[in-house]
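Running log. JK asked me to keep both predictions on one page so they can be read side by side. First protein, sequence followed by its tokens:
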Amino acid sequence: MTLYNEFRILTVDVEDWFQVENFKGVIEEKDWNFCELRIVENIKKLLDLFERNSVKCTFFVLGWIAKKVPSLIKEIYSKKHEIASHGFWHNLIYYQTPKEFEEDIIKSKKILEDIIGEKIIGYRAPSFSITDWAIDILVKNEFIYDSSYCPFFLHKRYGKLSVNTQPNEPFQFLNGLIEIPISTLRYFGINFPWGGGAYFRLIPYPIFKLGIKRIQKKNNIYVFYFHPWEIDFSQPRIKNLKLNYKIRHYGGLKLAYNKLQKLLKDFSFISIKEFLNNNF
């Protein structure tokens, strides 16, 4: 690995509103085909925003979405953004067997490669559920990097990797797979998630912005993630959700697009692929 200057990486997890983990107990996979598909409109809105701000980013695409609307993936790719894999079914890795996991990533990878005509080299686990045994399977299937490690250990869904490294710093496993961690802000000896999602929507933007600057005083790289449904205040509301799930999913939706606009005006961003091309 070579030394790198200050970089900020922008990533988008391409899944629709009904595919999130918080809805698993209410909406089953067999019901997905009957849910309102809102991903196309939301992605187009993001693509316009990225173009206005001269941003290129990495889209981690769910295989189910790619199969459903391949033209949308072609459009993202035509705008010179990177296409990477988010699996096919959005299932947490540690609830799968190694065989089930491998079948899932093979299926998703082939769909994406057939659509864009280029090798898929990146992967992100659903809900950052990366697990030790999955690393070798990713390398076996010719992935170059993973971007799933989030060293915030108070969130029960995030995966656990047996690594000994500084938070926020990219590193390589012994098998050669490169890991691009989700950014965290260390405060009072705890790593707090500071890479996007509900944290970005719920934390006042001036505070979030200061957090990014604080991270980059110690780390040259900052990794941000976002979901298309997070700019969609008009999406269907699901009843009978746990209160914390409601807050995680619906909290801050109304202001999210404006906050994202501010973020892209205040900071420059690149894709993971561009970062790797310059530094590995």
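And the second, directly underneath as requested:
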Amino acid sequence: MIKLGIDFDNTLLTYDSLFYKAAKEKNLIPSNFGEGKTRIRNYLREKDQEESFTLLQGEVYGLRITEAKPSDGMFEALKTAKKNGIELFIVSHKTKTPYLGPKYDLHNAAKSWLEKNCFFDKNGINIFEENVFFEVTKEEKIDRIESIGCTHFIDDLPEILEMLNPKIRKILYNPNSKFIDKRFINMSHWQNLIDLLN
């Protein structure tokens, strides 16, 4: 039986348009600046405003997370996986509160996003709440993935996949071909998921 583990941030959902919206509201970027969390972070670092980015990130991941958009094609792919008898788990590395600024509960915020987007609904993705784990360190995330017996794991970060047991099939979520890494199964779009699991 396939036990599919999935990362949360930048895998199930995308923050690019929300970071752009929030940064513009705070006048941190020029009005013609394009979307993209990484672009905004790099721009603010160049301007010696890394603290502004850290505060922005805390707000986006905490207070405003429910405004973040699901990754394109993700719902359909996971609903199909569930119908095909694949057991789903969400395992994320996420601090409990932001590094700077208001102490939003980032774990509860992420669960709010899952609830809003019908992950726990019978007519939605219908994942069990006890199959959702937010771990405060990368090492705890890896331990969790291995202890629950995931046969496959999807993450947007090669560094996480590198840490996993070689027996686990490692799927790199790589929608913009940001990485060229032949060590992992590359998934450029969620609609490719079912084919990659077969």
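Observation for JK regarding the second prediction: The mean pLDDT is 95.
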